[in-house]
Design brief:
Leucine-rich repeat, LRR (right-handed beta-alpha superhelix), single chain, alpha/beta, 5 helices, about 10% helix, 3 domains, about 450 residues
Length: about 450
């Protein structure tokens, strides 16, 4: 009985040269990823896809050239992964019209032009990753037709548009990453009730967003509000015939460094709004996101105090509030966050003593610098501000800490005494005559010869 090849898996080897083409009527998965193929993708590659082919990956090679349009002819392809190569040219607009396509990953290439606003009404796309290219233009509004959308990653491009409020009705959205583009304006959306209840990761860093963060929007992110015991720990994947699957990947900034998550766990949650123009107070509602693990609000213009509600984030591992205009004291509730392994509140206007806690005491001095009124370990060894004014021993300060009354009183008394003595000599003849006579008698006792020379 002749055997029929169904899966060709050559990933994670050291294969070189051109991509081998395989024509088999029964093959449904072709995986050439993580090798050293250095050719271009054959122009007629789509002709080798049969009605059974649902998976094709050449990710993480050294491929160059353009993406062949023949790929779009496949009516059965569900996963297309061409990421981490050197593919160039325009973004193939025909890819947006593939009705069966569920996962499209073109991250880290050199694609240009714009994304066509032609996603069909029957769009099946669940995961779209175009990050790390040079794509321009506006956000395609027809993405609302992809009602099964779970992952949308467009970071590190040149997209110019307002916040995509039109996606608010896609209740399945779990990952929204728009970092390092040219997005602008407010992020508040009207009628936010029930918006993105499954959202786990949102990354808006390095854009031009401004205004206040609406607390009402945060209150709808139910997946971030779930307790640890309620969160599932299974991997997110698309499984094919219980044999073949593809895993999402995303780069997040955690603990001050970029970290790539190859397997997006449903228990991982992250908010990154850093390097924008957000202002106003930090919403108290963030404290309701009890499963949040990473919170980065650095490089904005937030004012007010750090909400004490952040002490409710018992799963928080990384907190970055640096380079804002935050004032007041560091909430002592933060000392109770036992999982917190990174915190940075530097370059704000914080005052008072740094809370003492098992976690906060382990952070470096760099986490607290740039706050003139902040003191205590690890910033200072003594319990006083770093830039405290110098004091004179034995002197007493008033409440403003500027006037030394002991020193001033001595100066005033000395001046007053000199003035009284000189004034009496100048304006009182009787006192003047007595003074001269007294001084003469004293000098005569010291120098007797003065009496013989001067007489009385």
């Amino acid at each position: 009985m002749p055997c029929s090849l169904r899966v060709l898996d050559l990933h994670s080897n050291q294969l070189q040269g051109k991509i081998p083409v395989l024509s088999s009527p029964h093959v449904f998965a072709l995986d050439y990823s993580r090798n050293n193929f250095s050719s271009s993708i054959p122009d007629d590659i789509g002709a080798y896809f049969t009605s059974n082919t649902i998976f094709f990956s050449v990710a993480s090679n050294n491929l160059h050239g353009i993406i062949p349009r023949s790929i779009c002819n496949s009516q059965s392809l569900e996963i297309l992964d061409l990421s981490n190569n050197s593919l160039s040219g325009s973004f193939p607009q025909c890819l947006t019209t593939m009705k069966a396509l569920a996962v499209l990953n073109l991250r880290r290439n050199n694609l240009t032009d714009y994304i066509a606003d032609k996603f069909p009404q029957s769009c099946s796309l669940q995961s779209l990753d175009l990050s790390g290219n040079q794509i321009q233009g506006q956000f395609p509004k027809s993405l609302t037709n992809c009602t099964k959308r779970e992952v949308l990653i467009l970071g590190k491009n040149q997209i110019t548009d307002a916040f995509p409020c039109f996606l608010k009705n896609i209740s399945t959205l779990r990952v929204l990453a728009l970092q390092s583009n040219k997005f602008y304006g407010h992020i508040g959306c009207a009628k936010t009730n029930g918006t993105w209840p499954m959202l786990q990761i949102i990354d808006l860093a390095n854009n031009n967003f401004d205004g206040e963060i609406p607390g009402s929007s945060l209150s709808t992110w139910q997946a971030m509000m779930a307790n640890k015991d309620d969160a599932a720990s299974k991997l997110h994947h698309l499984q094919f015939h219980n044999q073949y699957f593809c895993q999402d990947a995303i780069t997040v900034t955690s603990k001050g460094i970029d970290m790539e998550l190859v397997k997006v766990l449903t228990v991982f949650t992250s908010i990154d709004f850093s390097c924008n123009k957000f202002n106003g107070p930090i919403p108290e509602e963030i404290g309701e996101l009890k499963s949040l693990r990473v919170l980065n609000l650095s490089g904005n213009a937030f004012t007010g105090e750090i909400p004490s509600s952040l002490g409710n984030l018992q799963q928080l591992e990384s907190l970055d509030l640096s380079q804002n205009n935050l004032g007041g004291q560091i909430p002592p509730q933060l000392a109770k966050l036992t999982f917190l392994s990174f915190m940075n509140v530097s370059y704000n206007q914080l005052v008072g003593e740094i809370p003492k806690g098992t976690q906060i005491s382990t952070f470096s001095k760099a986490s607290f610098v740039g706050n003139k009124g902040l003191y205590g370990p690890p910033l200072t060894a003594e319990n006083r501000p770093v830039l405290s004014p110098p004091t004179l021993e034995g002197s007493h300060q008033n409440s403003g800490g500027e006037i030394y009354w002991g020193l001033i009183s001595a100066e005033i008394g000395f001046t007053f005494g000199i003035g009284m003595a000189i004034g009496s000599l100048l304006f009182c003849k009787r006192w003047r005559n007595w003074y001269y006579k007294a001084m003469f008698n004293i000098l005569v006792k010291i120098f007797p010869q003065l009496e013989e020379r001067c007489g009385n």
